[in-house]
Write a structure and sequence with these properties.
The chain is an alpha+beta fold. The chain has 17 helices and 17 strands. It folds into 4 domains: 44 residues; 79 residues, ATP-grasp fold, A domain (Dna Ligase, domain 1, 2-Layer Sandwich); 129 residues, ATP-grasp fold, B domain (D-amino Acid Aminotransferase, Chain A, domain 1); 147 residues, Succinyl-CoA synthetase domains (Rossmann fold). The relative contact order is 0.09. The structure holds guanosine-5'-diphosphate and manganese (II) ion.
């Protein structure tokens, strides 16, 4: 089909319709939207007929349809510590109090000597809720700093976000303390439903923001970013207005913080960028005193800054081991370990497990071109997960060969010993040889299955 010149000219213009014209949602109760739409049509028509000049901004969408960048239980995202997030914020001109990061008690008191006055000692861990857990402490002198540092470095932090076992604290931030008059909340997060980032602000920032979100959602004001024009001036003004500053200089400062946070979010492919709280001090200064950022794993390769910030000591050890062997390991909450090749097959496998009443503990995708060593490592990783009460091996041999997996199974059984039942469903390339090898090896815990449904039923029965 050939498009007329006018149709062709219109095509690149379509994306400039601003996102706040969301007809499906707004027409019934918002007459202005319709008026806005009509106005846009007129402007476009006038521009096309040459009556007025119109500058069109072209851009590339930053994401592909269906690609999910939302943090799901904190997975698929890279985290950084508060002190690192503070560095990224200061880079874009968001004011943060002076601070230094330390990992011993002696360094903590040295840092205090350099900063002086009142400081706040803060545990640097990948979990929030530190304030309530006693891992954010205001200190007036060197002795208090020493005491707080000793406590934090020798106790595991247990907060609402960590689970009962808590996490060890390896680093502390010693930051100049401020006198807070009010606490605000500012965040940018990927909105999967709208497929564009959303900026959220609230006058009720601080440690209770989760409660606010649940009980008083109207206290959180949201504006969605245009996919390639970013935060528009009037949206920023609306967000600042929602924070209700009476002082013009403070309002301007808050606007700068919001724009800065959006800049960081877009520049580093964040999944989340959050300042909580952003504070107004008794002197009328606007400062970010806590920051949290997570990044889309799939984009980290293009940010040297983030690669340098990566802290393997804080990551899930099993996930890292899997990564080292080119395997993708996704921990879940159930008790059936899944060893599969290919993400699609993993989904189908987990669906069938669920259908037959089971619950996956993880899935380990060995990929298309797995070697025997890689597959053995895969078993080692799955078997070291204490939640696992049964394993379902589901391999469709294409490039990966069934006999390679069978050999790995046999080697893993000999090396590691299967402590839980392992149900095996193999299909595809070299499957006959694989079945023969497995039959000859006669591994005690190994249960062959005819097809996927049979396999799912068997493994669910074993763990029930
Ligand atoms: P979180 O609990 O992990 O989110 O840690 P935050 O860094 O947000 O600190 C928790 C709370 O401690 C904040 O909401 C503040 O109320 C308080 N706080 C943190 N830093 C300071 C400070 O410099 N001065 C004062 N007065 N309070 C602070
Ligand atoms: Mn906080």
């Amino acid at each position: 089909m050939r498009l007329t010149f006018r149709q062709q000219a219109l095509r690149p213009l379509v994306p400039i319709f601003p996102p706040w014209i969301d007809l499906s949602r707004q027409i019934p109760h918002n007459g202005r939207t319709v008026a806005g739409c009509v106005l846009w049509m007129r402007v476009l028509r006038a521009a096309l007929s040459g009556r007025i000049g119109l500058t069109v901004r072209f851009g590339v969408r930053r994401y592909t349809d269906g690609f999910e960048t939302q943090p799901t239980n904190g997975r698929y995202t890279m985290k950084v510590h508060e002190y690192q997030a503070r560095t990224l914020l200061s880079e874009v001109g968001v004011p943060v109090p002076q601070s230094s990061v330390v990992d011993t008690v002696a360094q903590a008191t040295d840092a205090y000597a350099a900063i002086g006055g009142k400081v706040v000692v803060k545990a640097q861990v990948f979990a929030g809720g530190r304030g309530k857990a006693g891992f954010v402490k205001l200190c007036d002198n060197a002795d208090e700093v020493r005491e707080a540092a000793e406590f934090m470095l020798s106790n595991r932090m247990v907060s609402v976000q960590t689970g009962a076992e808590g996490i060890a604290v390896k680093k502390l931030l010693i930051a100049a303390a401020v006198d807070i008059e009010s606490e605000y909340y500012v965040a940018v997060v990927m909105d999967r439903t709208k497929r564009t980032p959303v900026v959220m602000v609230s006058r009720e920032g601080g440690v209770e923001i989760e409660v606010v979100a649940k009980e008083n959602p109207d206290a959180i004001v949201k504006r969605w970013l245009h996919p390639h024009m970013g935060l528009l001036g009037f949206q920023c003004a609306q967000l600042v207005a929602a924070l209700n500053f009476t002082d013009k200089a403070q309002a301007r400062a808050a606007g700068k913080v919001i724009r800065g946070l959006v800049d960081v979010f877009l520049k580093y492919d964040c999944a989340l960028a959050e300042i909580n709280p952003l504070v107004r001090t008794t002197d009328g200064e606007i400062l970010a005193i806590d920051a949290k950022m997570t990044f889309d794993d799939n984009a980290v390769f293009r940010h040297k800054t983030l690669q340098d910030m990566f802290d393997p000591a804080e990551e899930n050890a099993l996930e890292l081991r899997a990564k080292d062997h080119n395997l993708s390991y996704i921990p879940l909450d159930g008790n059936i370990g899944c060893l599969v090749n290919g993400a699609g097959l993993a989904m189908a496998t987990m669906d069938l497990i669920k259908l037959h009443g089971g619950d996956p503990a993880n899935f380990l995708d060995v990929g298309g071109s797995v070697t025997k060593e890689g597959a053995i490592e895969a078993f080692r990783i799955i078997l070291s997960d204490k939640k696992v009460k049964g394993i379902l091996v589901n391999i469709f041999g294409g490039i990966a060969k069934c006999d390679t997996i069978a050999e790995a199974l046999i080697a893993a059984a000999q090396d590691l010993g299967f402590t839980v039942p392992v149900v095996v469903r193999l299909e595809g390339t070299n499957v006959d040889r694989a079945r023969k090898l497995l039959a000859e090896a006669a591994i005690e815990q190994l249960i062959p299955a005819d097809d996927l449904t049979d396999a799912a039923k068997k493994v669910c029965a074993k763990v029930a």
